[in-house]
Amino acid sequence: MIQRFAALVRLSALCLATVLLAALAPPRALADAPPARTVSGWLPYWDQEGAYQDALRHAAQLHTVSPFWYRAAASDRIEGHPGAGDARVIDGLHAAGIKVVPTVMETMKPGELAAILTDPAARATHVETLLGVVRARTYDGLDIDYESIAPTGDAAYVAVRAAYAAFATQLCAKLRELGKTCVLTVSPQTARTGRVWDYPALGRAADKVRVMGYDLHWRGGDPGPLATPQWYEEIMRRATALIPAAKLEMGLPAYGWDWVPGGTTRHVTWKEAEALRAAKGVPYQLDPVSQTPHFTYEEGDSVRQVWYQDATGVAADLPVLRRYGIRDTALWALNFEDPGLWPVLARV
């Protein structure tokens, strides 16, 4: 009898241990779950179908797509690019579980946007005009990408900085009343750049602040990498000191520039850069500092330099983001990228 009782005790203990282990073990569904949705991506209107299909292929990682659909032309006028508001794209992204937050950009002449923002009446009109865009479709919010104020000179930048912050605060509050997301896209703030953005005010106003982490070297300057880990370190140190990390998205490049001394600089996607490298028979090589791919080739009497970004280059930058608690990234742009980038982004 005692032996039978002892056996029952041992059996009960074994069953209890099994139950406890099962409770502590991760559910199979979670263990087999796809990567978390930590990526947003811009959808270029000039490659709308290709970018749309790219988004659907990677829907498990994308939480938001921002079609590059609108341009602010005046305080009371927003113009659509070709394909703007395409219901098939909106509905297809929604069916894949992706939010649709279109981008409104602007290419106004110097001073025009600043004049709108610093005039309270014009600013209020502009906010209402933008709200008309988000009400016109089943959008989930707006992404504001206003860049012409970035180089504002010394005499005016303090006023323009305050005016943009006031505009963002008003717009984001109105969007939130409608249950919509407010995204603000800004240039990096470093010791030499980005002073026109009031990061603390924008961080309080927005749901997400996208920092354009590209064009360290750009079409108007000398050849070089679009980003480096050292540059990202400076950007993230400043940004996370002023904006909660959970609100930040780091914009990553999926493109590059093709420079020639004294000539025209060309934009190239990763796909175009790799096709060009293969066509010229140039070996793949990485810059040892930035871990960015680059190559040179001859065209007529000129020697051109191409610097671009791929999965290897982005993988070199991600440890900086992890160190500062940044999980969300924004890709410029969908269907530009190295396919190997997606598993890399899953490790952010």
CATH topology term? TIM Barrel
Total beta strands:
14
Structural class from helices and strands?
Answer: alpha/beta
Largest sheet: 8 strands, parallel, barrel
Q: Enumerate the strands of the largest sheet in spatial order, edge to edge or round the barrel.
A: 1-2-5-6-7-8-9-14
The level of helicity is 40-55%
What would a concise description of this structure say?
The chain has helices at 2-24, 28-31, 48-57, 87-95, 112-118, 120-136, 157-177, 199-205, 229-242, 270-280, 311-323, 341-345, and strands at residues 39-44, 62-74, 77-80, 99-100, 103-105, 141-145, 181-186, 208-212, 248-253, 255-259, 266-269, 294-299, 302-308, 328-332. It has 348 residues and is α/β, with parallel strands linked by helices. Helix 5 (112-118) crosses helix 6, helix 6 (120-136) runs parallel beside helix 7 (157-177) and helix 7 runs parallel beside helix 8 (199-205).
